[in-house]
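Our consortium's second objective concerns turning raw sequence data into structural hypotheses that experimental partners can test. To show how far this objective has progressed, the report includes one record in full. It was chosen at random from the queue rather than selected for favorable results. The single chain below, 236 residues long, was entered without modification.
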Amino acid sequence: MARLLVVEDDETIGEALKSGLRLLDHEVRWEQTAEGALHEVTESDFDLVLLDLGLPDGDGVEVCRRIRAIQPACVLVILTARQDEMDVIVGLEAGADDYLTKPFGFAELLARIRAHLRRRVVGSSPQSKSIVGDLVVDTAGRRCFLAGREVSLRTKEFDLLARLAAEPDVAVSREDLMADVWDDNWFGSTKTLDVHVASLRARLTAAIREAEPEIVVAPRIVTLRGHGYRLETPAG
């Protein structure tokens, strides 16, 4: 059983999600406003939040950003009726782990929820450290350090970096990354992967700038067009 928060202002959709997820033995809270959602995440911990971006009393992207700040460890999936790709990207950059575009089937939503919750459990298993240049990824403690400074990463950003760092200089396909970081039965767009890679690169770049760029020996994430990504060991 997982603790889920559904944030959806549409009565029909919200009631259907709440009832359907409770039948699967999840503990579900349903809020219809941004204010109610922020109150819930402040008062209680959740394993996963389903957040509709089209809320009546606030900007859904800003709510997404604030939920992520309050509960950095929860899985955050945005629900959107917006067809503009940029809206989805902005939502992911605000802290969402994934998205679904309305209308969607309950079976598809359920598959995504199961995938995320399963990966959340698997991702918490203690493992060893990966060291690539001045980058240290401590998978047991779920901490990342670059040149001795801790780098703050969101859940999926950490999982993605840990997967690449486990095999430095090895080309990892998009399919393998989606399977290992999200779920092996993943289906749908891999845009989520691209946004998380971009965000991860930005965080590592910022960490290098905060240290001493001229002496930091940092790996870089290389894009392999038509295939995937590789964490490249730095020279020296």
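The partners drew two points from this record. The chain has eight helices and 14 strands. Residues 191-210 form the longest helix (20 residues). Both points have been shared with the crystallography group to help prioritize constructs.
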